[in-house]
Amino acid sequence: MAEISLNSSNFEQEVLNSKAPVLVDFWAEWCGPCKMMGPVLEALAKEVEGKNVKIAKCNVDENQELAQKYEIMSIPAFKIFKEGKVVEEWVGAQTLDALNAKLEKYLAISN
Amino acid sequence: MENGFFDYYLKFKIFVMSEIYDLIIIGGGPAGLTAGIYASRRKLNNLIITKDIGGQAGTVPMVENYPGFEGIDGFTLTDKMKKQAEKFGSQFKYEEVIKIGKSEDIFWAETVAGNKYQAQAMILSFGVTPRNLEVPGEKEFTNKGVTYCANCDAPLYKDKVVAVVGGGNSALDAAEYLAKIAKKVYLIHRRDEFRGDEILVDKIKKTQNIELILNSTIKEIQGEKFVNKIIVKNLQDEKEGELAVDGVFVEIGHVVNAGPIREAVKLDEKQQIIIDDYCHTSEAGIFAAGDVAFGEYKQIIIAAGEGAKAALSAYKYLQHKKGQKGPALDWSKQA
Q1: What is the pTM of this model?
Q2: Count of A–B CB contacts within 8 Å?
Q3: Which of A70, B24, B157, B254 is most buried, by CB atoms within 10 Å?
């Protein structure tokens, strides 16, 4: 399962109505640390394949209304959504292991 | 009697649960990761406790002075170091340490998550963090208008009004970059002269939408959900005024977060850990490397070099502690 590309028309369906927890990466082209996260997110999506979790990316330039709604003022910003609500959030580049560690507890609960 | 058994059970459980490592390394930047590589190659059972990989170096868009790499982004470079450490045996815990100490001759590190890790020796290499303004509202509005990374966040302030605080090159760079994006930039500095390069200062002074507010500091940051204004105080006439801004970019340098280590090792007046040429701190068995330690030059290659020194010194210390004398050379060279 590749990571999902989010926009205002699929955000509700893919994130808010999702039964599985969703990790959303808010990013932009011009942000160095964000771009570095690209391959990491790709690898993460591969690692969690078949598990009850979704990995998604939201470009804040193309989706300014979503960026505003979720109060994105610093990027890369990560939020974990569970049952339509933000349950955890943090700012700044992360390693694959760190992301895995953060997702782990939501995997354990949802399985 | 029942209680007695239960106590015994608990003790036993704690005993089996808390592994004692040879070495705990706190911090996963170039210093800590290099220490991990060297410690692992000496077969030290080592744990790296860190919030992230790369630290400050990890956020640098392009590193062009690390030997062997003509140009590489900081995150990729430090992720390579991490993989190398892991390959040789370093283990990782992604946690934040709040306190370190020593019980009998075992060192321990306690984390925000409530875990306690123990080791025979310790290396402190958790680097520096951006210096805070330490004014009301700063913490509350961090990432809600208050930011410490102009490279990351400037474009989110298109056509907005922002304040940059600081007088060095990083503040001047941030102001210049922001002037191209934001509607208006206030550059607030506590003195009437800038410490940055003259070329940059001239450029800033000529930029129309940058307004210099000198001899002044921010006294308070206010807002509702996000920042909407700052209280600025003039240090000469003590007068205070309000400025409506959407963002505050703090560029006033970096500091060691000394809280967790203050009671364990000696620090200099800048809160940096005092070390000798071999990375020993004031406490036998605790070593320090990289930006967290006293040193004139803050460079990736220097941090990595100190990490190697600290690990080799820790190895030597552990050999003495265990009453053994180790081989003088890196084992792998003999293999």
Answers
A1: 0.77
A2: 70
A3: B24
Q: Is B10 on the interface with A (CB under 8 A)?
A: no
CA pseudo-torsion sign B165, B169, B175, B178: negative
B300-321 helix and B74-88 helix, angle to the nearest 10 degrees: 20
- Residues in CB range of B251: below 8 A, 6 or more apart: B148, B150, B164, B165, B166, B168, B170, B171, B174
* Identity of the residue in B58, B59, B225 whose CB atom sits nearest the CB atom of A71: B225
Q: What is the pLDDT along chain A (111 residues), one digit of tens a residue?
A: 678 999 999 999 999 999 999 999 999 988 877 877 888 898 899 988 888 999 999 999 999 999 989 989 899 999 999 999 999 998 887 778 788 888 988 876 544
- Reading the block at residue B84, the tokens are 């190398």
Classified as helix, coil or strand, B318 is: helix
pLDDT given at position B218: 97
Distance CA A44, CA A24 (A): 12
Question: Is B79 within 8 Å of A71 when comparing Cβ atoms?
Answer: no
- B152 vs A101: CB contact, 8 Å cut-off? no
This complex has an ipTM of 0.76
Active site residue B153: yes
Asked if B156 and A75 come within 8 Å (Cβ–Cβ), the reply is: yes
Look up A34 and say whether it is catalytic. yes
A77 in B contact zone (CB under 8 Å): yes
CB–CB contact B54 A74 (8 Å):
no
Strand partners, B43: none
Active site residue B159: no
Query: pLDDT tens digits, residue range B17-52?
Result: 578 999 999 999 999 999 999 999 999 999 999 988
Backbone angles phi, psi at B253, to 5 degrees: 90, -170
User: B94-132 pLDDT, tens per residue?
Assistant: 888 999 999 999 999 999 878 999 999 999 999 998 899
Mutate to test the interface with A, among B59, B73, B75 (most CBs of A within 10 A): B75
Which residues of B fall within a CB distance of 8 Å from A67? 156
**∠ Cα B137 B166 B28 (to 5°):** 80
| Among the listed residues B38, B33, B35, the one whose alpha carbon sits nearest the alpha carbon of residue B57 | B33
Catalogue the long-range contacts made by B330-335 (C-beta closer than 8 Å, 24 or more residues apart).
B330/B41, B330/B42, B331/B41, B331/B42, B331/B43, B332/B41
